[in-house]
Design a protein that fits this description.
single chain, about 270 residues, alpha/beta, 6-stranded mixed β-sheet, 9 strands, acetylation
């Protein structure tokens, strides 16, 4: 598997179908550099293609999950010279590339679980709102920080956060840029669970990931795909979409194995995807 400057992919247990993806710039609080945005979609695409991977756990190396976008990268992206129209057009293309890097989480067929400790600021919130499941330690803290840098958040938080925490809560968090901690994140629905310590979180998230990884990969990837697609559809459209999906995917070896395992009262064993 490709080696990265700003990321690390680890398979902690031999034979496990859970792989860990670490934001790996601990000396900078895992702030996202230009290299980070380039490497992130490549890493997720590699995990998506790897048949040994059923679930991805995303976390940060060191003391923090992600301290946002590296200010050096921000300066590089926003530098404007010459014709304002052409500079603006280039900036738009650059922003679209950064957005695409975050959306790579949703494009990955395998579920991505965010395990957050320490700071999750700015672009860190962009990342976790694109993840499928989010957990954090009680002392983790979050901030939609862009407004304090005179920026309208543009990498996905303003689009994804309202569906997770509600429109009014998203508006207040995005306009104030205030810091909020794990228990409030749980109350708002931003995270599913909070944990007293990072060790406890790592253990419990690992068990959650292994549980999901043991299920039919066709059913798991299908559930993620249908939920994401249904987010942008009406109820009738969503029902039609899942009917079409299952007309292609329902009758499978996984279904036979699941029914057989239930009948024989044993754990099912599914083929790699």
């Amino acid at each position: 598997m490709e080696k990265f400057k700003t990321l690390e992919i680890v398979r902690k247990t031999p034979g496990s179908r859970v792989f860990h993806l670490y934001l790996n710039r601990p000396s900078r609080g895992n702030a996202l550099s230009v290299d980070s945005f380039s490497e992130f979609p490549r890493a997720l695409a590699a995990l998506d293609r790897n048949p040994d991977v059923n679930v991805v756990v995303l976390s940060g190396a060191g003391k923090h999950f992600c301290a946002g976008i590296d200010l050096t990268a921000l300066a590089s992206i926003t530098s404007i010279s010459g014709d304002h129209g052409r500079s603006g057009e280039k900036l738009r293309r650059d922003i679209k590339l950064l957005q695409d890097s975050i959306t790579a989480i949703e494009r990955c067929r395998k579920p991505v679980i965010a395990a957050v400790h320490g700071a999750c600021i700015g672009a860190g919130v962009d990342i976790v709102t694109a993840c499928d499941i989010r957990c954090c330690t009680e002392d983790a803290f979050f901030s939609v920080k862009e407004v304090d840098l005179a920026i309208t958040a543009d990498l996905g938080t303003l689009q994804r956060l309202p569906a997770i925490v509600g429109y009014g809560n998203a508006m207040e968090l995005a306009l104030s840029g205030r810091r909020f901690w794990g228990p409030e994140a749980k109350e708002l629905g931003l995270v599913s669970k909070t944990f007293c310590s990072k060790d406890e979180m790592d253990k419990e998230v690992g068990l959650l990931a292994e549980g999901i990884a043991s299920k039919s990969p066709l059913a798991v990837t299908g559930t993620k795909a249908v939920l994401l697609r249904s987010r942008d559809l009406s109820l009738d459209q969503g029902l039609d979409y899942v009917a079409t999906w299952n007309s292609a995917m329902l009758v499978s070896d996984d279904l036979k194995e699941a029914v057989s395992a239930q009948t024989q009262k044993r754990k099912p064993v599914f083929a790699k995807l």
